Amino acid sequence: MTATRSARARKAGVEAGALADVSIDLDAEDQFVYKIACTVCKAKGHRAWSTLRKGEDNGYLAAMDRWTFHLVEKHPDATAPCLSYLPAAQQRLHERREGPTR
Ligand SMILES: [Zn+2]
């Protein structure tokens, strides 16, 4: 279990790129909770930025989408494999906003 979790965290870390610090927790239902922290924002002494949102979907895709948007907004010069999924991430964001739940 632990090996699987750290293997997933490493894989996500590769996708997220060099600025990301990825870790995975388990929630109350033993679901993986992905946390991606920004090492640049942390190093600058700002409040550490992380993808984790209380009460929201913190699965792989949701966390990676939020991280991708953070990179685009705050670190436009950065490169990371996840940036190639930006159009898909924007599409998902759009679908969530257009969703019927509100
Ligand atoms: Zn940052």
Counting H and I runs of at least 4 residues, what is the number of helices?
Answer: 4
Helicity range: 40-55%
Query: Total domains, how many?
Result: 1
Q: Mind describing the biggest β-sheet? A: 2 strands, antiparallel
Ligand identities:
zinc ion
Instruction: Please give the number of β-strands.
Output: 2
Radius of gyration: 14 Å
Strand content: 5-15%
- Residue-averaged pLDDT: 91
Instruction: State the order of secondary-structure elements, H for helix, E for strand.
Output: HEEHHH
Intertermini distance: 37 Å
- List unreliable stretches of 5+ residues: none
Shape: globular
The strands making up the biggest β-sheet line up spatially as: 1-2
**Structural class assignment:** alpha+beta
Characterization of this structure:
It contains four helices and two strands; from the N terminus they run αββααα. The chain is α+β, with helices and mostly antiparallel strands and 102 residues long. The protein has one domain. The protein has a two-stranded antiparallel ribbon. A hairpin with a 5-residue loop joins strand 1 and strand 2. Helix 3 crosses helix 4. The protein is globular and about 35 Å long. It starts with a helix and ends with a helix. The mean pLDDT is 91. The chain binds zinc ion. Zinc ion binds next to helix 2 and helix 3.
List keywords for this structure.
2 strands; globular; 4 helices; binds zinc ion; alpha+beta; 47% helix
Provide a compact summary of the structure.
The chain has 102 residues and is of the alpha+beta class.
Give the SSE map.
Blueprint: H1 2-16, E1 20-26, E2 32-38, H2 39-43, H3 60-74, H4 86-98
Antiparallel strand pairs: 1-2
Bound molecules: zinc ion (ZN).
